[in-house]
Amino acid sequence: MPENLARYVVSGPAQICFSGGRTSAYMLHQVLCANCGLPRDCFVVFQNTGKEREETLAFVDECARRWSVPVAWIEWTGFIEGRAQRFCTYQLVTFETAARHGEPFAAMARATNMLPNPAARLCTINLKMRASSAYMRAQGFEEWDSVIGIRADEPRRVARMMDPARDNSNGVPVLPLVRANVTKADVLAFWRAQPFDLQLDPMGDLGNCDCCFLKAHHKIVRALVAEPWRADWWIGQESAEHGATFRNDRPPYRDLKREALFYARQIPLALEDTDEAPLVDCFCGD
Question: Residue 13: helix, strand or coil by DSSP?
Fold first, then answer.
């Protein structure tokens, strides 16, 4: 086995976290190659929040079909009554039946009576980490590895994942792309050589989760210039009974939409880049 491919050898029990992006799909492909298929007691898990773009859902489905790998599509459905919130329920769905209008996300916000924010990323914690943990417990495991698609050129994310003080009750992080020194350029080169790809611009502002509050202000506005209607679900959540916004350090989504509509009327469109970086440290990444 080539030395680089050996970095992708994994053993169960483990969940292979498939976010629906190019990076995690590349990682999955390499794991399948290195292990001659899906290793025993390893499960490919895609956690659907209902806010993933249709292109992402189609990509997950196509990877599963082309590579003949089973992917567990799971959706958070609630907390277990009488137990701590870290214990939740989930349902298995398919590409055809997966939520597409934010239903799991909205249900979680109602159950917690608050909206996620950069300091309390309840969407990542509940809809992804805890939902997949419930799935792994249902397979009969109390401890497992979480094989995550974080690249070598994401040092801050790597440091947070490998922090000795990190709570690993939702799986011990395993980062094969870091071991193999894979960068974004490597991932994009791989997909350029494939017969199919995720139908989202790798240099664009869309991402897997549409209008995610962790994206930089200017990136959300740019995305809304082309598709202003995508703000409506987020506006509805900020107008709901929670009485809160996703972030208190910038305008609410109704103002971001208004800003996008203003720029859309300008010829030519001029949006300045800023140094604001997206606050990404979850399973929703590439």
Answer: coil
- Cis amide prior to 13 (ω within 30 degrees): yes
Angle at 6 between CA 145 and CA 56, to 5 degrees: 60
Q: Is residue 266 part of a domain?
A: no
* 162: containing domain: 3-192
> How far is residue 104's CA from residue 50's CA, in Å, rounded to a whole number?
6
Do 282 and 208 touch, CB atoms closer than 8 A? no
CA 244 to the chain's CA centroid? 23
How far apart CA 154 and CA 31 sit, in angstroms, is 20
Residue 262 lies in a domain: no
Q: Evaluate whether 146 touches 17 at the Cβ level (below 8 Å).
A: yes
User: In this structure, is residue 224 part of a structural domain?
Assistant: no
Q: Among residues 79, 123, 43, 83, which one has the least CA distance to residue 283?
A: 123
Digit-coded pLDDT (tens) for 33-73:
999 999 999 999 999 999 999 999 999 999 999 999 999 99
* CATH code of the domain in which 178 resides: 3.40.50.620
